[in-house]
Amino acid sequence: MRAIHRLSKILQPITIISKGSNNPHKDVTSKSQRLMLELGVIQQAHTGSFHFLPLGLRALDKLVKIVDEEMASIGGQKIMFPTLVKADLWTTSGRADAMGSELMTLKDRHNHKYILCPTHEETASHLLQSLAPISYKRFPLLIYQITSKYRDEMKPRFGLIRGREFVMKDLYSFDVDKLSAMETYEKVAGSYDRVFKRIGINFVKVLGTSGTMGGDLSHEYHYRAAIGDDKIFVCHNCDFSANVDLMKTEKCPKCDEGKNVSIQSSIEVGHTFLLGDKYSKPLNAKYLSHNAKPQLLQMGSYGLGLSRILAASVEVLSLEQEMRWPDSLAPFNVVVVPPKAGSREEATVGPLAERLYASLEREVPELKQNVLLDDRTNLTVGRRFLDARRVGYRFVIVLNKLSSEDPPQFEMNDLARNSQMVLQENQIIKYIKENINT
Ligand code: ATP
Ligand code: MG
Q1: What is the span of the domain harbouring residue 62?
Q2: What is the best residue among 172, 268, 309 to mutate for testing ligand 1's pocket, by most ligand atoms within 8 Å of CB?
Q3: What is the pLDDT of residues 12-32, one digit of tens each?
Q4: How far is CA 416 from CA 31, 195, 262, 318, 394, in A?
């Protein structure tokens, strides 16, 4: 039997976060954080750490699927490193000191020091060292994982946007020389462009800062948002753009333009690094060359903040009191709202709801497992419609007295267009097929 997603069964605690100091969410610092908490998408566990409730995890899973597909298209192999990593590796790379108190460290019963990894350049290099030396024929090698990362952030805030535990997709590339490492870097950059295009939020790719990561070249992906902790410089005269941390003047370093430029607040959602042998050298990650000599591998590292991307998307798109999602990540794309229990329409129209649900899933490939039935029929249609708007299901289909006509008609609301139409089933299917953007 095909499973029907019934809203009454979903763990989605809806609360209102009032202003004032004695509420449990007084540290709410952004619109997306407030909406995601209020509407039961996530729940705070402790500072900077969150439960993904069913709706939140559905959105995250959609993002994971997009990423997995694009990584497969460039030959990325999915793996999983341990999260708990020996602190020695970080002493060897020299990063233990550089990262300092941002590292989450702990000791086991034998008093050995470990790190809850914030990123895995050392781990990846160590893996290659321990398998080494692998023949040059096996490179380029692209390995990636999607796991929780840990950083003892000075100021965890904005919910998932700056957590102490967050979900990152991190990819590490290994090449036999600088030239092929650069080619791999370009190839991965292409796949990241496609990931961001598929998500559907306008993004800016800029020259990036290397921070404690080091290396030769880096780029960052940003979403523009007022709450962003970063600032990006964009020259509208040529195609130059950079994180302002790299700039000393407000003039474009490429074309010398000083007026037709902008500096905007933004959220960093992805970061790529061409690392050279910064990690492979201290950690001794080598390959076997064609004349059987061990040689240092050339590395790249590529991070996407998946939990941050979710929250940043909501931040960019949402209204003050209503959450909005890109179609690509919305927990559900359609909600069907049947009449209230005991209403005049209930007996005639009620049974149509599950039929409509089934045909939407059957006829629109994008809607498979993406339709929700708001079976909370103890509530009025109006109340459920308002909830649907707040949670931001793009297509809200209401059954009412028009639905008892032959053929039945439905009230179709498209939140992205702010429009309401009266349509028959086949017209609804056509409309969604033509307008959904997943
Ligand atoms: P930031 O400057 O925002 O602290 P970063 O430059 O230190 O980030 P990277 O080391 O480049 O972060 O990590 C790769 C990606 O992981 C970032 O582009 C971002 O999307 C995400 N990320 C980093 N820190 C956090 C965090 N504390 N919470 C959620 N996502 C994060
Ligand atoms: Mg970064």
Answers
A1: 57-316
A2: 268
A3: 999 877 766 566 666 799 999
A4: 19, 21, 28, 11, 6
